């Protein structure tokens, strides 16, 4: 099986069959103190962290002349340096990857072997974030939450072997004169909590990025909505009211909210403003049709974690609200422990919806 690389543009390369990953080295920094008169030292495990990893992918190829060898090397160099970071998969069917940066590519001829028709090729990579990540994003969406007083609990399973850092979306609701009020999540498994002091009205979304300890509020996350005119295996024809500008919805996330195919999310990779056809990154599980209603979002959570972009004002209506979040979240974040996390959901008016999104990871 071939080593697979995916660059920051989403382009994929399968390396030659002869190349393989030379292991997954791991090293941990163990801070501690030495006490006079005692052997060894006291290790402060809460301060321990994984160090960056240097990884080599290499192999020896035979039966090619020097021009062919140079061409292979140039192809690999062009790919790995074109758009860093890279997702490194040990083989094309692997369901885990490591995020790496290309440091160097080297090739050399084995002089004296088969008239120079044997050469080695090696790629040196460094992982700034030395974890293995699940290829698929885990998503739990409950919108609205069904509250079961006195305590409403959610079980969120982290299938990885290390803590995961989720992005949490809390959806505002309005019922009569009531809005979502002072929502709070408490993880009984980790002992950590995140609380927002304030109101979330209908259409508003509070986004909590546990990895960066950030929080923003969007006044409205819907870019466009309507009823489809039709669809195909990997596309949907939007309503006549959709934008007439080619490419307008590219890289945004669409959700089928009702009718045929309800509940599906996809990333838009192409849009024709004349025909209103939006092309999906992956085929639909259930093909939408003229009964399908949809929403296209300004901030696409399935495409990645974009809180930092929202903080920069790229998305209209994004307001930093970190000052309204409890101090414990600012210090510790809100990680998910490996296994089942028991999370209590609270909202004074019991109206909110929630999405929890993360990638499982391993040491």
Please provide a written account of the structure.
Helix content is 8%, strand content 42%. It has 3 helices and 33 strands. It has helices spanning 66-82, 307-311, 327-332; strands spanning 4-6, 12-14, 20-21, 28-29, 32-33, 42-43, 49-50, 53-62, 86-89, 96-109, 118-127, 132-134, 138-142, 153-158, 167-171, 174-175, 178-181, 184-187, 192-195, 199-200, 205-209, 214-218, 222-227, 230-232, 235-237, 253-258, 265-272, 277-280, 293-297, 318-320, 339-346, 353-358, 361-362. Strands 1, 2, 3, 8, 9, 10, 11, 12 and 33 form a 9-stranded antiparallel beta sheet that branches. Strands 23-29-26-27-28-25-24 form a 7-stranded antiparallel beta sheet, with no helix packed on it. Strands 13-32-15-21-22-30 form a 6-stranded antiparallel beta sheet. It is flat and about 85 Å long.
């Amino acid at each position: 099986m071939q080593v697979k690389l995916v660059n920051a543009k989403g382009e994929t390369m399968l390396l030659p069959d002869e190349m393989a990953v030379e292991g997954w080295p791991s090293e941990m920094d163990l801070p501690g103190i030495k006490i006079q008169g005692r052997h060894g030292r006291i290790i402060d495990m809460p301060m321990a962290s994984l160090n960056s990893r240097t990884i080599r992918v290499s192999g020896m190829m035979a039966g090619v002349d020097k021009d062919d060898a140079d061409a292979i090397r140039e192809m690999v160099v062009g790919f790995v340096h074109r758009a860093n970071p890279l997702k490194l998969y040990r083989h094309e069917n692997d369901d885990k990857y490591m995020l790496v940066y290309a440091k160097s590519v080297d090739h050399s001829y084995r002089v004296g072997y088969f008239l120079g028709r044997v050469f080695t090729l090696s790629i040196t990579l460094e992982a700034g974030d030395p974890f293995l990540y699940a290829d698929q994003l885990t998503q739990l969406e409950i919108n609205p939450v069904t509250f079961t007083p006195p305590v409403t609990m959610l079980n969120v399973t982290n299938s990885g072997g290390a803590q995961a850092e989720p992005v949490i979306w809390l959806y505002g609701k309005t019922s009569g004169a009531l809005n979502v009020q002072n929502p709070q999540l408490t993880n009984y498994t980790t002992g950590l909590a995140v609380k927002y002091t304030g109101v979330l009205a209908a259409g508003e979304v509070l986004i909590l990025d546990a990895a960066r300890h950030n929080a923003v509020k969007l006044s409205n996350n819907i870019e466009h909505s309507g009823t489809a005119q039709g669809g195909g295996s990997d596309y949907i024809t939007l309503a006549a009211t959709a934008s007439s500008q080619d490419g307008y919805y590219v890289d945004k996330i669409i959700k089928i909210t009702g009718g045929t195919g309800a509940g599906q999310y996809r990333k838009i990779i192409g849009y024709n403003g004349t025909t209103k056809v939006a092309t999906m990154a992956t085929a639909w599980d259930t093909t939408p049709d003229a009964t399908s209603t949809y929403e296209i979002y300004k901030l696409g959570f399935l495409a990645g974690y974009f809180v930092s972009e929202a903080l920069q004002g790229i998305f209209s209506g994004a307001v930093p609200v970190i000052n309204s979040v409890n101090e414990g979240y600012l210090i510790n974040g809100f990680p998910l422990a490996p296994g089942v996390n028991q999370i209590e959901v609270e909202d004074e008016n019991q109206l909110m919806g929630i999405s929890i999104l993360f990638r499982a990871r391993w040491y």
